[in-house]
Amino acid sequence: MGTWYFGSHPFGNLLFVGHLVMNQSDNRARYETRLGRVLDHIYDHLDEPLDIDRLAQIACMSPYHWHRIFQAMYGETVATTVRRLRLHRAAGYLANGSMPIAEIAERSGYSSLQSFTRTFRAVFGIPPAQYRKQGTHSRFRPALSGDDQMTMREVVIRNVEPMEVLSVDHVGPYMQIGKAFDGLFGWLAKHNLLAGQMRMIGIYYDDPGVVAEDELRSKAGVLLPHPVQASVTVSPPVSVAHVKGGEYAVLRHKGPYSDMRAAYEWLYGTWLVQSGREAADAPVFEEYLNSPKETAPAELLTEICLPLV
């Protein structure tokens, strides 16, 4: 790389570089804000056809170029993002409800049940009907026998240090907390805080069996490997959330996020009851050990952390 010279001022280079970095940061922030609006629209309109021109208008960018910018910044095309979100939602419908598969296919944007089945099988490894009956969520169901069923040994007791995580609030279905994570990542990118060693934390406050789905409260959070510099002001929509320290029952879950409901039912209804332990007065949290953008659904690793007295 060449060397920059600006007159005789001894700090000329530093002043220019600092100004350049600030400009670059401001420019990225503007793009993050505009593309963040696109992500919000996608999450809120998964049942509707993908309209590239409409998304370009929301991004306030040229329809010829904006999707290339999206792919460069988020690591996947808009179509891939929409397909991934729709398929994860479809898996939730299959695992946790009785909606007809043909209706799930239609709501997921597929013109035929055959094309939905083919795509679902390619991503999840088995067709939708088989996933509903025999997906990884089925191992949490009570059974008279079978090696695939959960055992008490699969939960470990771990001491967790108190944590302060940067977070964004989410109200609505837990399966849509990715919307809050995307907003948080955009904020981190604006402030040059994205780090390879940061930990992804989801905090869940309500019981979906008691609270209406649209009113469920949660937080999408990250624990950074280093403190936030004093020059960065943490302000809405980002806030600092406190995670209680102490003993936790930790269940490592491998598989699609749609299976988490069954995992929770087993953890509370079987493990906790039989363990003789009591749950503490603090919310449960999840730690995500890999990313759904880079990992097949069957290989996703999540630790469910239940606070204990």
UniProtKB/TrEMBL annotation:
Q: Which domain of life is it from?
A: Bacteria
Q: Which UniProt keywords apply?
A: DNA-binding, Transcription, Transcription regulation
Q: Does the keyword Transmembrane apply?
A: no
Q: Show the InterPro entries listed in the entry.
A: AraC_E-bd (IPR010499), GyrI-like (IPR029442), Homeodomain-like_sf (IPR009057), HTH_AraC (IPR018060), HTH_AraC-typ_CS (IPR018062), Reg_factor_effector_dom_sf (IPR011256), SmbC-like (IPR050908), Tscrpt_reg_AraC-type_HTH (IPR020449)
The stretch of residues making up the signal peptide is none
* Sequence ranges assigned to domain HTH araC/xylS-type in this UniProt record: 36-134
Output this protein's name: DNA gyrase inhibitor
Q: Which organism is it from?
A: Paraburkholderia nemoris
